[in-house]
Amino acid sequence: MHTTLSPTPADNLLQLLDSHGLPYDIAEHEPVFTIAEALAAAPDIDGFKTKNVFLRDAKGARHFLAVVPHDVRLDLASLAVTLGTSKLSMGSPDRLLRHLGVTPGAVSVFALVNDKAHAVELLLDARVWQAEKIQAHPLRNTATVAMSRASLVGFLALTGHSSRVMSF
Q1: What pLDDT does 40 receive?
Q2: For FRET with 125, which of 9, 48, 49, 167 sits at 20 to 30 Å CA-CA?
Q3: 151 domain residue, yes or no
């Protein structure tokens, strides 16, 4: 009996980028779950290294994806004040899977492709936004994609998400 493998969500993402002419580079690597592991895997591609943090407010009514430089430490209390919301905390793995369709270690701006309800607000650090290219996981933590800001803008337009650019 011959079986065909179904395309993975990551395959579908890359096909979406290709079909809309949004160029990117990709490097495969060992699975990474932390920034330290990602830096050690150090894919040999251009691009600003980012950290992606999925957050929720105290009531679980608002959700955020913060994309910041890999070495930034988020001040959640200060960020909550800036956003005009209650106390912020990390979203649980279940909530992450429900809203962005990924598991811990695979969180990135690309997960917004799974946020059909637009329930997640995108927060981009100004340095990430100003970078010529950024690095992000393509819905799996075994690869890193690098894409230009123009491609990122095109991707966000496809998903219908806007970003709030701020300094962290």
Answers
A1: 82
A2: 9
A3: yes
Q: List strands edge to edge, sheet with 163-166.
A: 88-90, 50-57, 63-69, 120-125, 163-166
pLDDT tens digits, 51-87: 999 999 999 999 999 999 999 999 999 999 999 998 9
User: Which amino acid is it at 85?
Assistant: T
The CATH code of the domain that includes 112 is 3.90.960.10
Residue 4 lies in a domain: no
Q: How many domains is the chain partitioned into structurally?
A: 1
Asked whether residue 149 is assigned to any structural domain, the reply reads: yes
The enclosing H or E element of 59 equals none
In which domain, by residue range, is 145 found? 9-166
